[in-house]
Amino acid sequence: MSIAVMNWVWAHSPTSGNERLVLLALADACSRDDGTGCWPAAATIARKANVSDRTVRRVIGRLETDGRVIVHRGGGRAGATNSYTVVMDVHNPGHSVTPDSLTGVTRATGEGGHRCQGTPDTAMSADPPKNHQGTTTPPAHGRAAVDVQGQAVANGEEFFEALGPRWLLSLRQRERLAPLVAHALAAGWRPSELAQAAGANTAGVRNAYAVLRARLADLPPPPARPAPRPTWCGRCDERTRLLFDDRGYPGNQPCLACHAESAAL
Fold first, then answer.
1. Last residue of one domain, picked from the residues 34, 57, 86
2. How far is it, in rounded angstroms, from Cα 214 to Cα 96?
3. Which domain, by its residues, includes 38?
4. Which residues in the chain land under pLDDT 50?
5. What separation in angstroms does the CA of 208 have from each of 17, 26, 33, 203?
6. Residue 113's pLDDT is what?
7. H helices within 164-207, ranges in order?
8. How many domains does the chain have?
């Protein structure tokens, strides 16, 4: 039981009715104060919320769609099929910008909207401007790390641009999603593929940040891709990669320079 998670639901969750009862039952089952470590069986949730098992499944589906709960399917302990995370930072006090407010919010494409200076979502440097004067070029041994980080940031921006204008995200929300995006890209997802998988369905979405966070946290493996075609050596037929015969036509012998697997035999 986590008193902190239950207190957060009582104080800050906008849910009501069965949604609130089920969310409180999940909060009661959390073993950690960050809303994680929660793996109750559906029957346990139904008993605590005094509803049927079918109602539990339906309500959890709505809570997941609204971004109130993240469902980790197949991640439960013995007797429980799933584990859950109670999302506690969607409506935290002090965060004045939400996906339903356009103040300080930019579209996922980076176009439209505007930044309001002084709001929590304004991109500002952590240091005073004077501290950046005299900045020197990073040493040679550190350039590779800088290049890798820069590529990761570029791929993350490409993901948010590929989401399109249907997903409204604040700058801070994009920063919070960036680690999940980077993890997915490192696993083999391409930015456009990831955007298509995470942002495919916008029907009924009321909290873009929470829904994207839930989808990015529960991604399937990246799609399989065919092996890249070997580089053409320029001395065989480019289309078939077969050596030319005496008449100048592609024969039956594969080019060993283009087929590394043939050369290894």
1. 86
2. 21
3. 3-86
4. 90-149, 261-265
5. 23, 22, 24, 11
6. 39
7. 171-186, 191-198
8. 3
